[in-house]
What does this fold into?
Amino acid sequence: MRKKLLFFILLLFTVKAIAGDDKKQEVDSILSKAKELNAAAKTSLQWESAMKALDLANENKYDEGIAKAHFWVADALLNIGLYKEAFKHLEGVQTTNYFKDEIEMQAEIHRLKGKGYLKLKLFQQGIQEFHLQLADAKALKGDSQKKSYLKAFGNLTTVFDVLAKPDSVFRYIQLRLDCLQGLDEKENVLLYIGVYDDLGDFYTKKGDFAKAELNLKKSLALIEKYNAPVFYNTYTFLGNLEQGKGNYKKALTLFEVGLANMEKVGLWDAVARKCKFLAYYCRYYKLSGKWTADEYDMAYTWGKDSLDNKNKEVMDAVMSQLVKAKEKESAAKVSKSVTISIIALVVLIIAVTFFVRRSRHNRKILGQKEDALQETETINKELTEQIGENKFNNLNELAKSNNPEFLTLFTELYPEFIQALKSLDSNLRSTELEFCAMAFLNFSTKNIAEYTFVTVRAVQVRKNRLRKKFEIPSDADFNSWMRGLAEKVY
It folds into this structure.
């Protein structure tokens, strides 16, 4: 009898263990799908898969699954722009035993935090996280260590390129070249291509076109050898090289090859920005390629509208799921409270106490729902403020780099001012609007000359022409007059 009982108990534990393993395999399968969706840039689907894996892993107390699910959820939220929620999930990873035991996951968390800081333009915090990633990577072995180093060095290359520090850019490119030694070329072809692309771009900006061409040809050889699916950066840098050499038509052809690859990969945000650039490029150099400047402008407008709608759909879907998650959490708390209340009521056996507790319980539910809705409204408000703040921070940077996106963003932020100018002269050219926009932002004559790559004398001449056109009194400060025009409208 005892043997039968022991066998039965052992059988129950075995069944439970098998069922637990099946659940873990299901979580791992969902996480693999989330990783594939990440590679395909399907952010909303990646988020949904990772959340599904997180719920299942929590339900089965699968520590490794919880850590990895939090990681992929955070990655998706960073790409969407929900930075506050993303960092909460990164904290979720750090509460797991898997995170504490796995150095590679610790390094990846620093990488993802650095990525988030870069998106928020907090460059120093991003640099610090990438250095922490490098410190963790020292404990890794073999290819895992090299790949972690390459990712960190690659991100640092990007940061210092944005910060216009070419010496640091070159240093980190050299470190990446060292890491590539002994790393399987076919398996890591995109890492190889990325290093040669950045080296080619570095030499193009430096004016050493021979070295730039040599490195970019290495990228082309790898793309052809392994039929690499992603190569738009290579053709963009090749286009920059030909533009620097004065071969504007050839550069346009290369830019268009890069654009076609962006479309194939599905990077619609990059496609829209590239169309805007090509519209400006064709108009500036009086060229036409696959499309004319006007057609590229139309493609940019259509692409931007479609992308905005898509991003809104993704954002709405995520926010809806966040509300549901809050409600589910509240329901779980409520359920627990109900159980405790029922046990207390059974023990006390007092009907009056039962109704009092039930009434309090209902009020608690309403309060929790109101708190959940209030928290969601707060998140939306913070996100809106964050997006607006980022736009204002970006405006000056776009002006300083003479980026064609400057006028687009300025018009979005100060539409009334642009309308006021056009009411004075409806035939104003975009270059005149950009010039007036810089004056509105109170840039000095010297600044405008520096940012638009002309002489101070040329800026003064343009100011005099605009004074005559707008009948600005000679004793009136040009910049103050522009701001005064905006105040009249507001």
